[in-house]
Write a structure and sequence with these properties.
Number of helices: 0
Number of strands: 11
Shape: globular
Strand content: over 45%
Structural class: mainly beta
Oligomer: single chain
Order of helices and strands: EEEEEEEEEEE
Radius of gyration: 13 Å
Length: 113
């Protein structure tokens, strides 16, 4: 299983980014999938997820600003992030299968004030 994230970068506060996670060796459409993030000195936390039934979950801090989606044909997971704030600065990780599942290598998102 391989998960490859892309789309991170440096953006000013109020800006937007879209993260992508291309999967191989697994089928994202039949598994729990999610985006997590880890800021320096903090624990990794769930940002957004899609359950097996298709329902979505969001951390309170990103509700209304972030949107998770997947393209089953491309076997790719996305995270659209808008109204970014400095506190969103972190390494963002793609995941399938939950905490004991598979992880990507992470992509850095830095939001400047």
């Amino acid at each position: 299983v391989q998960l490859v994230e892309s789309g991170g970068g440096l953006v000013q506060a109020g800006g937007s980014l879209r993260l992508s996670c291309a999967a191989s060796g697994t089928t994202l459409s039949i598994n729990v999938v999610g985006w997590y993030r880890q800021a320096p000195g903090k624990q990794r936390e769930l940002v957004a997820g899609i359950r097996k039934g298709g329902s979505t979950d969001y951390a309170d801090s990103v509700k209304g600003r972030f949107s998770i989606s997947r393209d089953n044909a491309k076997n790719t997971l996305y995270l659209q992030m808008t109204s970014l704030q400095p506190e969103d600065t972190a390494v963002y990780y793609c995941n399938t299968g939950g905490w004991s599942g598979y992880w990507g290598q992470g992509t850095q998102v830095t939001v400047s004030s």
